[in-house]
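Most newcomers find our protein records easier to grasp once they have seen one. A learned vocabulary of local backbone shapes supplies the integers on the structure line. Here is such a record, shown just as it appears in the course material:
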Amino acid sequence: MMKRRQRGRPLDGWLILDKPEGPTSTDMVNKLKRLFDAQKAGHGGTLDPLATGLLPIAFGAATKTVPYVMDGTKRYQFTLRFGESRDTDDAQGAVTGTSDVRPDNAAIEAALPAFRGLIMQVPPIYSAIKVAGERAYDMAREGRAPVLEPRPAQIDRFELIDRPDADTAVFEVESGKGVYMRSLARDIALACGSLGHITVLRRLRVGPFTEDMAISLDKLEQGEDTAPISPALLLPVATALADIPALALTESEAVSLGHGQAISLVDLMGRIPDGADPAGGTVRAMVGSRVIGLCRLEEGWMKPERLL
């Protein structure tokens, strides 16, 4: 039986999209895949339709590095409106309650420390979490809003950065993966004795990707009616791994890894980077400037985990 030929070009690399408000992350992947005429594409972390900002799009071999991007630190900025709770915890939902309380800055600052570090967070009912095999947002849309259990969330930084008026407050957050800004907005308002929801949400950073790398959809669409977009706009696959400590290998060691063989850490003495944990850490295996793949250090060996 003949193998079916994949449609599109075999592109490898990252495009850091400045996502506009409105479309879903999947909408953007499909659109970029078409604009680049690419065989394979995915994204490095979902953004809500309301949200704007960094949406890393992975092409080809870059899709193998998506989990490492999603594990990286995220930075967000959001505007909280006090006085109304919404069923979606953002401005797109239906009002579920009202409050006349408008906390002052001192009350907000006093509430913030409880939301830093490792906290327990109840996700929004309109989220992609699965409950008994069903998506929570599907259940909520059908009037069967699920009861979601609290789950751990790592908040490295949570700051009040602006107070335009009594009704609104602007925050900046740095967090790990799987943290919901809509839940943070909802819960900080409750902790201040009020109700609230997000009206503006923007992602400023995803792992090694920052705003200065982002390209707007408008710019990408300018040449939509002509040939596919040039791959020259793509960042190298290895850009996603910049936060992972690099370990230099010889050509022969790289060949061994390529055959699935582990390398003794004794043979790598003096080359193991300071930031790598010999008991379970991940390193970026390099030959010169070429990334070979990602390896795990454990039990005295460096073992190939994901080869590029």
In short: DSSP finds seven helices and 19 strands in the chain. The longest strand covers residues 151-165.
